[in-house]
């Protein structure tokens, strides 16, 4: 079972990263290997629109820190993707990564990835839950396009305070890991 966690907040111990870690540490307790990528620590460019991934190459031709991530994510059984809302979308770091997943799609918009994968999309935000539902809808649609069965975990009313209590959501993420990874 291959689990890949990608966190898009620049705050390594911020709410979204801590919630993602809830899933990852529960998975590790169940003897699963977790590969963690913290996007803010990586050097990469956004998609260059060259479309060589459609014509000449099965993978993105850019060679940077996302090359390995895209390979690992393509092979993952479970993807945990976490970002806060920044200006009505995911962070720039996360959006640049998502643009590069264009390389997962064939010219006919069918996915190049194997079916049967699960994704947990974690979104934190300052506003209440009545705002930014569109972000979840959009990213769910992108991930579904690649063949992921998507579950969304939203944490509204999250302040920037590093001691912000998100235990309720960490528990939710941890329970999901137990549910998805239990062998019986
Ligand atoms: C540059 C910036 C833009 C933000 N834009 C929004 C926004 O549009 N809507 C919102 O609800 N919260 C917004 N926030 C608040 C964050 O989404 C919120 O504090 C989130 O919990 C931070 O997540 P993190 O702890 O994982 O970094 C913004 C924060 C920053 C720093």
Detailed description of the structure:
This protein has one domain (2-181): Rossmann fold (3-Layer(aba) Sandwich). It is built from 6 helices and 5 strands; from the N terminus they run βαβααβαβαβα. The mean pLDDT is 96. It has a 5-stranded parallel beta sheet with strand order 2-1-3-4-5, with helices on both faces. It has helices at 15-29, 52-55, 65-75, 92-100, 133-145, 167-181; strands at residues 2-7, 33-38, 78-84, 117-124, 148-155. The chain is of the alpha/beta class. Bound molecules: flavin mononucleotide (FMN). Flavin mononucleotide (FMN) binds at residues 9, 11, 14-17, 84-88, 124-127, 131-132, 158-160.
CATH class: Alpha Beta
Strand content: 15-25%
Shape from CA axes?
globular
Class from helix and strand fractions? alpha/beta
Q: Under CATH, the topology is which? A: Rossmann fold
Q: Provide the succession of SSEs.
A: EHEHHEHEHEH
Tell me the count of domains: 1
Question: Care to count the β-strands?
Answer: 5
Query: Overall pLDDT, averaged?
Result: 96
What's the CATH superfamily, by name? Flavodoxin domain
Quick one: biggest sheet? Answer: 5 strands, parallel
**Share in helix:** 25-40%
Q: How would you summarize this macromolecular structure in one to three sentences?
A:
This protein is of the alpha/beta class and 184 residues long.
Note the main attributes of this structure:
binds flavin mononucleotide, alpha/beta, Rossmann fold, 184 residues
């Amino acid at each position: 079972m291959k689990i890949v966690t990608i966190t898009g907040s620049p705050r390594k111990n911020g709410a979204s990263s801590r919630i993602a870690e809830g899933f990852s540490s529960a998975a590790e307790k169940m003897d699963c290997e977790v590969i963690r990528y913290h996007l803010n620590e990586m050097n990469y460019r956004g998609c260059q629109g060259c479309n060589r991934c459609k014509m000449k190459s099965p993978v993105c031709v850019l060679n940077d820190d996302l090359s390995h991530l895209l390979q690992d994510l393509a092979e993952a059984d479970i993807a945990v993707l976490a970002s806060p809302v920044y200006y009505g979308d995911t962070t720039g770091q996360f959006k640049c990564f998502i643009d590069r997943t264009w390389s997962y799609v064939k010219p006919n918009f069918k996915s190049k990835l194997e079916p049967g994968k699960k994704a947990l999309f974690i979104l934190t935000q300052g506003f209440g839950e009545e705002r930014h539902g569109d972000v979840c809808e959009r990213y769910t649609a992108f991930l579904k396009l690649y063949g992921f069965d998507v579950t969304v975990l939203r944490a509204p009313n999250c302040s920037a305070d590093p001691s912000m209590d998100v235990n309720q959501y960490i528990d939710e993420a941890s329970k999901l890991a137990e549910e998805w990874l239990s062998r019986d």
